[in-house]
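Example record

Each entry pairs one chain with its bound ligand, iron/sulfur cluster.
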Amino acid sequence: MGEIIFWTIIRIAIVIPLLWILEAYIPQQFWWLISTATIYAAILHPAIIHYRLFKSKNKEILESTLCSTCAHFDETAVLCMLHDKHPTRVFLPCEGLDWEPRSSNIDSEGIIKS
Ligand code: SF4
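Structure tokens for the complex follow.
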């Protein structure tokens, strides 16, 4: 996820000054249309595509591993924060020994939801 944010910031840092420079060469009546289309095409659309790829690539880890229900798991980075390692479908950094339920997985009586 950090990589998506990083490259989005890089694209913003390139596109915004470029549009600012090109403002003098673009007819005023088309300025908002061209700048909006450029911002969407060069900044928003690639970020959306990369986010969808990130979600589909990590879908199994996010939905069907022990880590996905653990309090130490950071979904935005697909990272075990306790061991500072990326779990996979076949690799759990703690081998299940440090698993702790998320508070959202515990009901009002203290029983872990399945
Ligand atoms: S502590 Fe264990 S179960 Fe929890 S996220 Fe880390 S590796 Fe996964």
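The radius of gyration is 21 Å.
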